[in-house]
TrEMBL record:
It comes from Haliscomenobacter hydrossis (strain ATCC 27775 / DSM 1100 / LMG 10767 / O). GO terms for biological process: carbohydrate metabolic process. Residues 24-520 form the Glycosyl hydrolases family 39 N-terminal catalytic domain. The keyword Membrane does not apply. Belongs to the glycosyl hydrolase 39 family. InterPro entries: GH, GH39_cat, Glyco_hydro_39, Glycosyl_Hydrolase_39. It is an enzyme of class 3 (hydrolase). This is Xylan 1,4-beta-xylosidase. The active site is at E199 (proton donor).
Length: 557
């Protein structure tokens, strides 16, 4: 006891806390569920960025890193305009009318977008949105010119209104689906997910919930006539922990089950999958960014609870159509300083910790979680590291993209993780990660000849502190010799942002600097690969992990 007191006096309480190891036990023989790759879904407001220089590069990277097809969700696929691009905007001009009011279809731009996806092995999550100018009940003003710092509601213009003619809308849906089948083949289009609109419970939809249900009936009926095996769903409402969003979601689900169909007059409407959104809520506290993962997880939890409460729907795939630390990808950190987390390792550690809890919540509610869309892509021809919520900036990958590269190395079954961790998934959902204790935990998987453990050291407060000392006890290996790769994301590894800052934050990097940044943006090893021996199928390792750092230990045999 005297030695303990003397130690505390000599080295201080902080050093004593540092000496306390987090014990993480992984049992590869105890399977708890599938390691579903629901992380392989991404999206953006701006569909035309896909075929721009950096858009093509990033799509190629997403496809190359993933062992399964990546799905991409985009807005504005039916919006009027000739290839116009702006933040939170895009256009395809797919539908216009002649002087007599007859429909004129032009698939040139939307084909260019989808061709870009498919050439890279990306599959569309195709969205029937937004309202073409010629069909809108209130078309003017139509194209917005929103910029960061402007009021958000400035984006809600003529494209957000119901159609003046539901039959013409249905004909547009039918014609587009028929065109897609003719161009890409029935089997390919059957593998896509098609949906109606985005966040219809707020300004994106200027109609009522009943008008949305009516539009859904016309959309689903037309799509199924064009391709009976098409997968159609909705309603892509905002976070269900908000009462009005939950009410909209439940009204829609009730309509699909027992409402009178506006087209057929029969009961119900086709529904192949269910969608909603989930967002966190960062803010500035005492001069630093403080995240709020709990807000996002409560959205997910409530959405799962609602779906699970419907016996006839609980088996349907759920796609969280946008799942992010906050709500506005195009709001940079200069106009929204709480978004300063986006360039560095806080975004990556948040992503690792939050996705692990999505697995846990899906297990708890016993729902069929199919996809989780990170509404994070790229913004073409914008300043380097402006602080948008994106995966790459001017072709330079950010640290967060490397978390998805880590997930891509995990496959097979999820296995049991235990120890003396300070947080359960329910605690993070209910209270987020606050106070003196960080969230130091793991997600682990096992496949036929490989295994993986992802470790993170996360806290809502973006404040520097001591490294985490982790004792990793692994058991259940079936091989005596393992080849170990240790990948790391921190200030020194897999982090182009820190390299860019050390260069002096150049606004126009040279070709040589760009090459260095591109290399720094890749997922890197903390140390050289090594061979280790197990003892009766067990292995003990010690890992030092910086705050907001993420490690992936990959074992092959």
């Amino acid at each position: 006891m005297k030695k303990f007191i003397l130690c505390c006096l000599l080295f201080g309480a902080t050093q004593f806390v540092f000496a306390q190891k987090t014990i993480i036990n992984v049992d590869f023989s105890k399977e708890i569920g599938e390691m579903r790759p629901f992380w392989a879904w991404f999206g953006a407001d701006e569909p035309n960025y896909a075929y721009m220089k950096d858009g093509k590069k990033l799509l190629s990277e997403l496809s190359a890193m993933s062992p399964v097809p990546v799905y991409f969700r985009a807005h504005n696929l039916l919006t009027s305009g000739h290839d116009t691009m702006n933040l939170k905007w895009g256009s395809t001009n797919i539908y216009t009318e002649d002087a007599q009011g007859n429909p004129v279809y032009d698939f040139t731009i939307v084909d260019k977008i989808f061709d870009t996806y498919l050439q890279r092995g990306i599959k569309p999550m195709a969205q029937f949105s937004f309202m073409p100018e010629a069909l809108s009940t209130n078309p003017q003003p139509y194209e917005h010119h929103w910029q960061p710092g402007m009021p958000y509601d400035k984006v809600y213009t003529g494209w957000a209104y119901p159609p003046k003619d539901y039959k013409k809308w249905a004909d547009l849906v039918y014609t587009w689906v028929k065109h897609a089948v003719a161009r890409y083949g029935k089997a390919e289009v059957e593998s896509w997910y098609w949906e109606l609109w985005n966040e219809p419970n707020i300004g994106y939809w200027k109609g009522t919930v009943e008008e949305y249900c009516k539009l859904y009936d016309y959309t689903a009926d037309a799509a199924k006539r064009a391709l009976p095996t098409i997968k159609i769903g909705g309603p892509e409402t905002t976070g269900p922990s908000w009462n009005k969003a939950a009410d909209f979601l439940k009204t829609f689900l009730n309509h699909c089950i027992s409402g009178k169909n506006y087209v057929t007059g029969k009961v119900g409407s086709p529904l192949d999958f269910i969608t909603f959104h989930a967002k966190g809520s960062p803010k500035i506290v005492d001069g630093h960014v403080q995240m709020n993962m709990g807000t996002q997880l409560r959205d997910i939890s409530e959405g799962f609870r609602i779906v699970a409460s419907y016996p006839t729907l609980k088996h349907l795939p759920i796609i969280i159509g946008e799942s992010d630390p906050e709500g506005c990808a195009a709001c940079g950190m200069k106009t929204n300083p709480q978004n300063a987390y986006r360039n560095g390792t806080m975004y990556s550690s948040y992503t690792a910790a939050s996705f692990a809890r999505k697995y846990a919540l899906a297990d708890y509610f016993k729902v069929n979680l199919k996809g989780v869309v990170s509404w994070s892509f790229e913004f073409e021809n914008q300043p380097y590291f402006y602080g948008f919520r994106d995966l790459a900036t001017n072709g330079i990958d950010k640290p967060v993209l490397n978390v998805f590269r880590m997930f891509a190395l995990m496959s097979g079954k999820r296995v049991a993780v235990s120890g003396n961790q300070k947080y359960t998934y329910a605690m993070v959902r209910d209270s987020s990660v606050r106070g003196k204790n960080a969230d130091i935990d793991a997600l682990a998987s096992k496949d036929l000849n490989s295994a993986a453990v992802m470790l993170w050291h996360y806290h809502d407060d973006d404040v520097r502190t001591e490294d985490a000392a982790i004792e990793l006890n692994l058991k259940g290996f079936t091989a005596k010799t393992l080849n170990v790769h240790h990948y790391r994301i921190d200030d020194e590894n897999s982090n182009a942002y820190e390299v860019w800052k050390k260069m002096g934050s150049p606004e126009n990097p040279s070709a040589e600097q760009i090459a260095i940044l591109e290399k720094a943006g890749q997922l890197t090893l903390l140390s050289s690969p090594s061979y280790v021996k197990t003892s009766n199928g067990s292995l003990k390792m010690n890992v030092q992990l910086p705050r907001q750092g993420v490690s992936l230990l990959k074992f092959d045999w």
